[in-house]
């Protein structure tokens, strides 16, 4: 028994120091105005500001789109990967881009998308003329989805790989068609992976900020932009923390929504 | 298990060897901390040959660290635990640091080379009498344009940026003060205004600029302008110099009706460990030959009158980087505004960006 308690110490310390303490600090900080007086004004400002509310809607909307796009690409990818002969190798290729620094990948996209970049060169070559690719919603979504895809593929792949082939064989033996097997057996059993993937993609997407400037040219503004500004430029840490709290609440909502059905479907 | 253990041991041994190696490298030149000068400067903002020359000449050993924004530098110094002997903040940050008692006053008897600084760059409003700071470089905010896409006479003034012909062809720097400076000057106001009404007016004016704004970016603007992504950009003179050295179709203009002029300055933090070394370095950098070499390497304008005379004519005759006296009179320095006002600038700017689409 004592040994067990000893083993939990590093984990508990980690959680308290690096998860709970920062959360408490952000919560505490969000009640102070710029001159250090206690106030509820930050929340009042947030809730009455047209700018912040629109920004919040923007962030949620873009995060939703990014998650949807990554999911639509990742599920079939994971499904096919699971059926390939050297699946560990193919999976490695999906994970490989995460080894490269995020900023470098984003800069690479600037080179691809610019007016003189490779994509426009190709478009001109096939006679379609050059187009404005950078600073558009489409390019922003594309880069964000590209960056998030590995985090969606991995959990879905794992949950698909866990499904015992005998279940699928049984379904076929009992006369289910290919589609019915997928609908009634594979999809429900892979749901935990999908939910984990949604959490892993939606939550970081809510507060993206570097890509909004580099690829979106600040034409896409999310809450991350506002937080960065409040902490770095205006030194209004209270307002920055308040927006941070909003993000944390949004995250809890997402966790709750995607975690809820676990008990219901948990037939294991 | 045995194999894993061996691998872990190997990694630990390697790390220990590396740590020992870096410690040995640091101490090889010897001299202890009395001979160590720690400098905290902007990235790529000094000719490295000058550091070696300083080390050879004085016997001090230089530990050179860099930062990328005034705010991050200020936060680091404010938190304490640092022992920088010499820092190079911009003027409004000098003012802030002064207010927060982070700077050591300068002893002008020890600044034997201060007289080389041109009179017009001494005694600036952000530090009267240069009690805390010595100017290092100065520069402006201005317009960079591509001569293949616009004619020079169409981009000489801020108000011309509102021309519908520039539709979706203008890049702005992602900084509230600079974008508002442009709008305020084009309306004949001070760049340091604290009046909400005037700022709101400037914002309304900015909103009419949105059809022309292609993107609001930071350092990436250099790359975008070099790659012909936009015809016109609003940027700093130093960045402009870099872009122009890559793309020869780019030119830089400081509007004659006025703009922002900024100074980066050498200061000694209160917490400095080796003030003697810091004074030696300031005097070394003020030496005309060294200042000229540095200005030629970095590409910014030098406040050092003797150094300016030593620079090649093609540099000092360039009105974009050494503007004529008539323009110089209209240039305004940013004052450190109260945090509340700074908040207003940024909130209005955020709103402008928000609805810029």
Automatic annotation (TrEMBL), chain A:
Protein's UniProt name: ABC transporter, permease protein
Location, primary (coarse class): membrane
GO BP terms, alphabetized: transmembrane transport
Protein's membrane topology: Multi-pass membrane protein
Transmembrane region(s): 7-28, 60-82, 89-113, 133-157, 196-216, 236-258
Keyword hit for Membrane: yes
Residue ranges of domain ABC transmembrane type-1 in the record: 56-258
Keywords on record: Cell membrane, Membrane, Transmembrane, Transmembrane helix, Transport
SUPFAM superfamilies in the cross-refs: MetI-like
Biological source species: Limosilactobacillus antri DSM 16041
InterPro entries cross-referenced by the UniProt entry: MetI-like, MetI-like_sf
Superkingdom of origin: Bacteria
Membership in a protein family: Belongs to the binding-protein-dependent transport system permease family. CysTW subfamily.
Annotated GO CC locations: plasma membrane
Locations listed in the record: Cell membrane
UniProtKB/TrEMBL annotation, chain B:
SUPFAM superfamilies assigned: Periplasmic binding protein-like II
Keyword set includes Signal: yes
Keywords: Periplasm, Signal, Transport
Cellular compartments annotated: Periplasm
Gene Ontology molecular-function annotations: polyamine binding
A GO cellular component annotation in the UniProt record: periplasmic space
CDD domains: PBP2_PotD_PotF_like_2
Any Pfam family matching the protein: SBP_bac_8
Positions with a binding annotation for spermidine: 92
GO biological process: polyamine transport
Signal peptide (from-to): 1-24
PANTHER family: SPERMIDINE/PUTRESCINE-BINDING PERIPLASMIC PROTEIN, SPERMIDINE_PUTRESCINE-BINDING PERIPLASMIC PROTEIN
Protein name: ABC transporter, solute-binding protein
């Amino acid at each position: 028994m004592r040994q067990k308690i000893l083993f939990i110490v590093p984990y508990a310390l980690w959680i308290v120091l690096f998860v709970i303490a920062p959360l408490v600090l952000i919560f505490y900080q969000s009640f102070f105005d710029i001159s250090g007086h206690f106030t509820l004004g930050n929340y009042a400002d947030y809730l009455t500001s047209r700018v912040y509310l629109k920004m919040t809607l923007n962030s949620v909307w873009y995060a939703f789109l990014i998650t949807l796009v990554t999911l639509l690409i990742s599920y079939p990818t994971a499904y096919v990967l699971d059926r390939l002969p050297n699946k560990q190798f193919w999976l490695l290729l999906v994970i490989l881009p995460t080894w490269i620094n995020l900023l470098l990948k984003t800069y690479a996209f600037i080179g691809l998308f610019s007016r003189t970049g490779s994509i426009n060169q190709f478009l001109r070559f096939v006679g379609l003329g050059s187009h404005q690719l950078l600073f558009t919603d489409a390019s922003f979504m594309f880069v964000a989805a590209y960056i998030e895809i590995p985090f969606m593929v991995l959990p879905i792949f794992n949950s698909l790989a866990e499904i015992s082939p005998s279940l699928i064989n049984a379904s076929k033996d009992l006369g289910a068609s290919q589609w019915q097997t997928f609908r009634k057996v594979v999809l429900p059993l892979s749901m935990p992976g999908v939910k984990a993937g949604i959490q892993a993609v939606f939550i970081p997407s809510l507060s993206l900020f570097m890509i909004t400037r580099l690829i979106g040219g600040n034409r896409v503004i999310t809450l991350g932009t506002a937080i960065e500004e409040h902490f770095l430029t205006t030194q209004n840490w209270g307002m920055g923390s308040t927006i941070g709290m909003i993000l944390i609440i949004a995250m809890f909502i997402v966790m709750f929504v995607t975690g809820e059905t676990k008990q219901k479907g948990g037939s294991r | 298990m045995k194999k894993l253990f061996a691998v872990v041991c190997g990694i630990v041994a390697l790390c220990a060897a590396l740590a020992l190696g870096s410690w040995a490298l640091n101490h090889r030149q010897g001299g202890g901390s009395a001979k160590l000068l720690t400098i905290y400067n902007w990235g790529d903002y000094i000719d490295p040959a000058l550091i070696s020359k300083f080390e050879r000449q004085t016997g001090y050993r230089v530990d050179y660290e860099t930062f990328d924004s005034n705010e991050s530098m200020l936060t680091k110094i404010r938190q304490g635990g640092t022992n920088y002997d010499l820092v190079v903040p911009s003027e409004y940050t000098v003012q802030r640091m002064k207010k927060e008692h982070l700077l050591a006053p300068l002893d002008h008897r020890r600044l034997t080379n201060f007289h080389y600084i041109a009179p017009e760059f001494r005694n600036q409003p952000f530090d009267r009498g240069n009690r805390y700071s010595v100017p290092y470089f100065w520069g402006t905010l201005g317009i960079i344009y591509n001569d293949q896409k616009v004619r020079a006479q169409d981009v000489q003034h801020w108000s011309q940026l509102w021309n519908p012909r520039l539709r979706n062809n203008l890049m702005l720097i992602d900084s509230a003060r600079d974008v508002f400076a442009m709008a305020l000057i084009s309306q004949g106001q001070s760049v340091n205004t604290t009046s909400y009404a005037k700022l709101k007016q400037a914002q309304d004016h900015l909103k009419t600029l949105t059809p022309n704004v292609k993107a609001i970016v930071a350092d990436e603007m250099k790359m975008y302008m070099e790659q012909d992504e936009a015809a016109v950009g609003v940027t700093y003179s130093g960045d402009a110099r870099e872009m122009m050295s890559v793309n020869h179709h780019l030119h830089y203009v400081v509007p004659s009706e006025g703009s922002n002029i900024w100074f980066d300055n050498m200061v000694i933090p209160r917490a400095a460990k080796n003030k003697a070394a810091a004074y030696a370095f300031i005097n070394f950098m003020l030496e005309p030959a060294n200042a000229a070499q540095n200005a030629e390497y970095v590409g910014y304008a030098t406040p050092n009158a003797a150094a300016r005379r030593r620079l090649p004519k093609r540099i000092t005759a360039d009105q974009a980087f050494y503007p004529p006296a008539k323009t110089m009179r209209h240039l305004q320095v940013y004052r450190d505004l109260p945090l509340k006002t700074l908040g207003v600038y940024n909130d209005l700017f955020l709103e402008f960006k928000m609805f810029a689409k």
